[in-house]
Amino acid sequence: MTVKGVGGRLIRKEDDRYMRGRGQFIADVRLAGMKDVAFVRSPVAHAQIRGIDIPDTLRHAVFTAGDTDIKPIRAVSGLAGFKVSEQPPLATGKVRQVGELVAMCLAGTRAEAEDIAAAVSLDLEELPAVSDMLEGRKPGAPLLHESWGDNIFLETLVDADLSATARTAPIRVTREIRTARQSMAPMEGKGVVAYWDSRLEQLTVYSSTQMPHIVRTGLSGCLGLDHGRIRVIAPDVGGGFGYKGILSPEEVCVCWLAIKSGLPVRWIEDRREHLIAGTNCREHHYLITGYADRDGKLLGIDCEATVDSGAYSAYPFSACLEAAQVASILPGPYDFPAYRCKTYSVATNKCPILPYRGVARTGVCFAMELLIDAIAREAGLEPHEVRLKNLVRPEQMPFDNITKKHFDSGDYPECLRRAVAAIDLPAVRDRQKRGEPDGRLIGVGVSIFCEQAAHGTSVYSGWGIPMVPGHEQATARVTPDGGLELRVGIQSHGQGLETTLAQVAHQVLGIDPEKISVVHGDTGYTPYSTGTWGSRCMVMAGGAVTRACQEIARRAARIGAWLMQTDEAKVTVRDGMVVGPSGSVTLGEIAKVWYLRPQDLPNDADPGGLETTAGYKPVRDSGTFSYAAHATVVAVDTEIGAVEILDYVIVEDGGVLVNPMIVDGQVYGGTAQGIGTALYEEMPFDEAGQPLASTFADYLLPGPTEVPELRIIHMETPSPYTEFGVKGIGEGGAIGPPAAIANAVNDALRLLGAELCVSPMTPRRIVDAIAAVKESGARRAAGDAA
Amino acid sequence: MKPAQFDYERPSSVAEALDLLRREDLFVKVLAGGQSLGPMLNLRLVQPDLLVDITGIPELKRAEPDSDGITLGACITNADIEDGRAPDVTGGVLPAIARGIAYRAVRNRGTIGGSLSHADPSADWVSGLAALGAEAIIRGGPQGDSGRRTLPIEDYMVGVFEAALEPGEILEAVRIPRLSARARWGYYKICRKTGEFAHAIGAVLYDPERSVCRAVIGATESTPLVVADAAFLFGDRPSDNLAATYDTAAAARLLDRKGMTDPFERQVHLAALRRAVDRASLQ
Predict the structure, then answer these.
(1) N or C: fewer beta carbons within 10 Å in chain B?
(2) Could you read off the pLDDT of A396-412 as tens digits, one per residue?
């Protein structure tokens, strides 16, 4: 029999409409009389606005900050010393990034709205720009927010005295490591359609968001409108990855204009806006030192990390989530005795940094895992051997690491051993010795990390950002014909939650998933939720659905027992039935009685009926820790700097998998993005703060031919703290690849003495790194000769 | 990212198209597939008053082989060449180049004449047809509808996004010589991912029966570097084993003349040419 509950490889319920092109995405929403918006955006990174010249004939169709009463977006972190940025949805006074909204133009079509935008001219007095975070940190740098006195949103320090370690450690390795700024690229961009519903006296907002309730809360603040006057609907959403987990200035502006004009108003982001003004992420800089014994045992890590936070603190995650995470998760899956980490979140004239799948983990894993490989080279050991010496061992679980992260369960060393075995390290070493007929160099690399997910109240209240998740709630409602409706406040935009939540409900109630519908992404229908982020939905919404269904089961059991004239204690709920000692009654029959034939029930029947809302938190809210080892073999063409991935293995432990096929999909997709980070994706800026990749011709994404066949091996260690032992696993794919691929490239270049500590590893960077070694070798030789 | 307003005409003959191109009161752009022009319109990088779509003109879609070569109409698509609907007289060069252009969706609509006239330095035809010794056949000009002139392909592209078309002219066809059975060729394109714009192109053609030895270094910052008599790259003794006598230093001197100084660019362009030579060689 096919497993339809937890562990079943069910075909995704939502795929029928997606595969037939019948999804309803934001640009499919059509409302009578709808108008389109185009924005006038700042063409420069930093300037004083001296004037906005709007032709008289267009004055009625153009709106600037002066026309509105919108309050600025404020995402304040409670961390001590955080400096607050106010992000006016339409610029006032200054512009601080290219693409910042200055005016909003309304017309019958987008093309006409763009015509109007082109007719608006800006009188800008350009100011010196901060285009590099390290320059921005320095005293005397141009200031973005003058009242701060510097450009630092926040400094944090995890302090320790490493001087003794530094004196005595046999191995000391220091690296400067950098990850490029990226632009995440969901297939669907952002978009919003809003109108005022005069019957309900309610602003109805369709938005391509992953967090409709948070958007509602944010809109309420910026527009000064009660929550009850706002309904946010996320239709089908074509990928989010974090970009759609923020309140965007465009959302606020379009909503204001819908109220002001009384018309349905929409804005559909185009890819140029998306790349230059929307989706920046990932830009980290590390100055990191590792201390180790000759046998590779880590003695301490000392790090100074800088995150380029961009111009404003994005709502709700703030400008500091990234750096706060860096400090707390840099130690990764390792156990070592001494750790110091200073972080800086620096304001620059770029768009706000947003959390992208993996958030800080991708950068942190890159820094830590490159450092470990550098230590291995220094110690003359295989990199995986150094890791095995330092990984938290299974018998230590659950384990509180040096930054008080609570690793719930798992066998990290075994995960790595399986990855190394699957990649067949000895065979790769042999191949390296033989050399390649085409002259390319072969390299093998591994990375290993753990991934905190579904972290809850205690973690987020500690970070002090505007959004703190509490109990996650779900509503379960049996329909009169024995079907089930689930209502959840999260949003599914590629995760397959319409299927997996139905599987969870099926596990509890035995109702066929075909008869279970999952309602999500609509504040009008669903309980409040912080939404979809942090790989939390399977744990949190899955847990809430479980609790709600368990309550439904109890209530159905009571009615069923009455109908069978038996004792409630003698019945069980399974396979969609209430089963008693001498018979059974289906949930359909029970529902029919409750809804349609209440005369068959006793007067003291439970008035709650077959609908309930239940809340859930795991036993501990410190998060689940899934983990994975990535291992890859690459071939480096040193002459032209090209990297080909020859083999790629992922050993992943996400706890109990509700639908292993969907998890595979998550891992494939994430890994493709990680390959992008490793080799292709970069949003460069010039010194004036101009983004230099404004189309996909310049911003390279990996395509089908750049993503090799990935081999996934699952381990399944249940979390002791969650329903069914599930763990969050949505992001890991995007965390491991840059480190594994960089380590493989560096392994290939080892004999040349070249090493790269930057992502992406572009052809130019690879060729330059090799050339730099040759040059210094030539200089040394010349010196020797002299 | 929607285009500014423009008018659109789809003439059914070259004469009609030339009539529209002679409109001096309008900024007229020719649309010959739109795979580059389309995005440029959307980005408003170009804002014509009138688009003249020439892909409905039957005479521009002819493929006429003869004993010396083939004349391919400007609106022959890359996919026509890839799939063999346009006959091949080059022993496989043309289909091989066509197959490597961008993505299939682009090849379905993108045309050989459109690509040449768009004159993007990284485009395959700009370099590939120059290596073959092809010619551009230009129609119109001072002599009116029947006026014709012919230019070597390397002279047709005169600068970045600039073709040697005068007002009232249109690229009618490309004339490609038939290669002899002994001809050897190599084409090597370096790009960071499949379908992406080329960062370097190397092309070489050695056809001793026709006394032809040509080489091209393309996808530079401007026009490709075309060597019509490339024997000196092979020590003046080109043979079927071209690689045996290939002189990298001579190729490097070409880059000096071109003013290419960036070490990475030099290395990659030299690699592209050397690899093209390797592919052309009987070893």
Answers:
(1) C
(2) 999 999 999 999 999 99
